[in-house]
Amino acid sequence: MTLRFPPAAGRRMLASGAAILSLCAAVQGEEQPSGGAAGGGIRCEIRITSNGGLTEYAGLAWAARRVEGEYDLTVSSRGPGGVSNTVQRGRFVLEPHRQSVLSRVQVMAGRTGTVQARLSIHSNGRELCQFTS
Question: What are the alphabetically sorted keywords of the record (predicted)?
């Protein structure tokens, strides 16, 4: 017997399966991409990795062509121990079709804490990509 689903149902099932796999990776403490934004052949993302009591926020970028510019990675956390605001800025060179880790920040916000992170990539005074978690 063959089961047939309309195309929309198949896409929903595929999306549900991807969400479940993502949740499983998060529960096991493995690396979990938090999303991405694209523009002008550039893709950026904040990868969130938990290990013990620390959570790492890594700013990643990819490009279809060679790009030079600047990045800002801002991580703000609020937890039982207080408030922390970290801003890291720097220059980068993206080589075509290669992932680059621009910056990393580790925080310990605890189970009741909140963390917000933002990655912004600029070149020649123009924002090429930004992502907020």
Answer: Plasmid
